[in-house]
Design goal:
Blueprint: E1 2-6, H1 12-15, E2 22-24, E3 33-36, E4 52-55, H2 65-70, E5 74-76, H3 83-96, H4 101-110, H5 117-124, E6 137-141, H6 145-156, E7 160-164, H7 170-175, E8 181-182, H8 186-192, E9 195-198, H9 212-215, E10 222-226, H10 235-243, E11 247-252, E12 265-267, H11 276-296, E13 317-324, H12 329-339, E14 344-352, E15 355-362, H13 368-375, E16 380-387
Parallel strand pairs: 1-2, 1-3, 3-4, 4-5, 6-7, 6-9, 7-8, 9-10, 10-11, 11-12
Antiparallel strand pairs: 13-15, 13-16, 14-15
This protein binds nicotinamide-adenine-dinucleotide (NAD) and 3-phosphoglyceric acid.
C-alpha cells in the first residue's frame, strides 16, 4: 500500500485515479509520495520513505530540488497542464491594463444610488478611457507552454509579437505562429515592446532578472505583466521605474507587501492556474506520473531526474537505483548482482546533470541483503525494490 500526503488541495479528478494500492495520509512522516501545488517545502524534513513529490503545476521553486536529488527523491511537474488557464488570464491582464476597467467598475458601484447616473457617466467616463492593443507590440520573455500560447493569441488579436527565449524547446518552437518575431537579444525586445509579459521559471539565474539595467532599455510608458513569479522582478527598481514613468502599469498575479503599495499596479490573487480545467489537468497528470513511478519505476516529466520508461516488469523482479552521475556506477552495481548470481534481463541507465537513474529487471528474486549492499555503494542515494 502506498501512502500519499497532499500538501494542498488537489482536484478529485486526479485523486480518483488512485487505485486500491493507495491511501491518503494526513501524516507527512509516513508518506511515500507528496502531492503539492504552491506550498513551500523548503523547510520540510523528508523521511527516508519518501520516494517522490508530484507538483500539480509548472513552477517548482517551492521545492528544494538539490536536496531532493541528494536524497533520491524524484520531483515531477505537469508541463503545459495549466498553460491555457494562465494564457486566458494574461489576456485579461493585457486588456485590464488598457482602460481603467477596475476604476470604472468601482465608480459605477460607488454611484449605484445616483438616479442621474446615466447622465453623470457621460461626463465621468473620460477618467477611465485608454488605448487599444491592436497594432501595439507585445514582448514575450520565455516561450514555453504559456509564453507560446500567449504569443500566438496576441497575434490573433492583431498585435505585433516579439519573443525571446534562448533555451526554447523544439516542441515550443514548432507551436509558435510564424508571425512571432524572434529576438536573439533581450535588448531588442525591450526597445520595441509596448507591453512585456514574463513566462520564464524562477531559478537562481532568473531571480530579479528584470532590474534597473533592463528597465532603462524599455520604452517610456511600457506595461509589464508578471504571471510567472514576483521575484523575477527587482521590486525596488520596479518602484523607481513606475515613478519615472518607464512602467505605466504593472499587472501581477503575485501579491506581496511591496507590490500591494505600488502605484499603477494591479494585483491578482495568484489565479493563473485556478480554473476547473487547469486544476483537473494538473491533478490528473501529477497523480498518473506519481503512480507510474511508484508502481513501475518509470519516470516522465521529472525536473530533477532523467526520463526512463522500461514498461511494466515481465521479469521476476525490478529494482531502481538513484545515484550520482559518476564513473563506474554501473560496474559496481552489476558486480554486486553478479556476486549474488543474479542475472540481468534488462537495464536502462539515464543521466540528467549531476544525477542518474538505473532501472534493472532481474531473472531472480532480490534479497534485502542485496539491496543493503547496493545501498552501500558510494554515490547511491536510494535503492527501491519495485517488484520482489
Ligand atoms: N500565475 C500562475 O498561476 C502560473 C501558472 C503556471 C505557471 N506559472 C509560472 O510560469 C512559468 C512558466 O510556465 P510554463 O508552463 O510556460 O513553463 P515552460 O517550462 O513550458 O516554459 C518556460 C520557458 O522559459 C524559458 N526560459 C528559461 N530561462 C529563460 C531566460 N533566462 N530568458 C528567457 N526565457 C527563458 C525556457 O526555455 C522555457 O521555454 C512557471 O515556471 C511558473 O513560475 C505561473
Ligand atoms: O506554477 C504554477 O503552476 C502556478 O503558479 C500555479 O500554482 P498553483 O497550483 O498554486 O495555483
Amino acid at each position: 500500500m502506498f501512502k500519499v500526503h497532499c500538501l494542498n488541495s488537489i482536484s478529485n479528478f486526479g485523486l480518483k485515479e488512485l487505485n486500491t494500492r493507495y491511501s491518503l495520509t494526513d501524516s507527512l512522516v509516513d508518506a511515500d509520495a507528496f502531492l503539492v501545488r504552491s506550498a513551500s517545502l523548503h523547510e520540510q524534513e523528508f523521511n527516508p520513505q519518501l520516494q517522490c513529490i508530484a507538483r500539480a503545476g509548472a513552477g517548482v521553486n517551492n521545492i528544494p530540488l538539490e536536496r531532493c536529488s541528494e536524497k533520491g527523491i524524484v520531483v515531477f511537474n505537469t508541463p503545459g497542464a495549466n498553460a491555457n488557464g494562465v494564457k486566458e488570464l494574461v489576456l485579461a491582464g493585457l486588456l485590464l491594463s488598457c482602460r481603467d476597467l477596475v476604476g470604472g467598475i468601482e465608480w459605477c458601484k460607488k454611484n449605484a444610488n445616483d438616479e442621474a447616473i446615466a447622465k453623470t457617466v457621460e461626463k465621468e467616463k473620460k477618467n477611465f478611457s485608454g488605448i487599444e492593443i491592436q497594432g501595439k507590440t507585445l514582448g514575450v520573455i520565455g516561450l514555453g507552454a504559456i509564453g507560446a500560447k500567449v504569443a500566438n493569441a496576441a497575434t490573433s488579436l492583431a498585435m505585433k509579437v516579439i519573443g525571446y527565449d534562448p533555451y526554447i524547446s523544439i516542441h515550443a518552437a514548432w507551436s509558435l505562429s510564424s508571425k512571432v518575431e524572434h529576438a536573439t537579444e533581450i535588448q531588442t525586445l525591450l526597445e520595441k515592446a509596448d507591453f512585456i509579459t514574463l513566462h520564464l521559471p524562477l531559478t537562481n539565474d532568473t531571480k530579479e532578472m528584470i532590474n534597473e539595467s533592463l528597465f532603462n532599455i524599455m520604452k517610456h510608458g511600457t506595461v509589464l505583466l508578471n504571471f510567472s513569479r514576483d521575484t523575477l522582478v527587482n521590486e525596488i527598481d520596479l518602484k523607481n521605474a513606475i515613478e519615472q514613468g518607464i512602467i505605466k502599469k504593472y499587472i501581477t498575479d503575485f501579491p506581496n507587501p511591496t507590490v500591494m503599495h505600488l502605484d499603477n499596479t494591479l494585483v491578482l490573487p495568484h489565479l493563473g492556474a485556478s480554473t476547473e480545467e487547469a486544476e483537473d489537468n494538473c491533478a490528473q497528470m501529477a497523480v498518473l506520473e506519481m503512480m507510474e513511478y511508484l508502481e513501475h519505476g518509470n519516470i516522465k516529466n521529472s525536473v530533477n531526474y532523467p526520463n526512463c520508461d522500461m514498461g511494466h516488469c515481465e521479469a521476476t523482479s525490478r529494482i531502481a537505483l538513484l545515484h550520482q552521475n559518476i564513473p563506474n556506477m554501473i560496474g559496481q552495481i552489476t558486480q554486486v548482482l553478479a556476486k549474488e548470481g543474479i542475472n540481468i534481463a534488462n537495464l536502462i541507465n539515464n543521466s540528467k546533470g549531476q544525477v542518474a537513474y538505473t532501472l534493472i529487471d532481474l531473472e531472480n528474486k532480490i534479497k534485502d541483503t542485496t539491496k543493503n549492499e547496493l545501498e552501500s555503494i558510494q554515490g547511491v542515494s536510494k535503492v527501491r525494490i519495485i517488484k520482489m
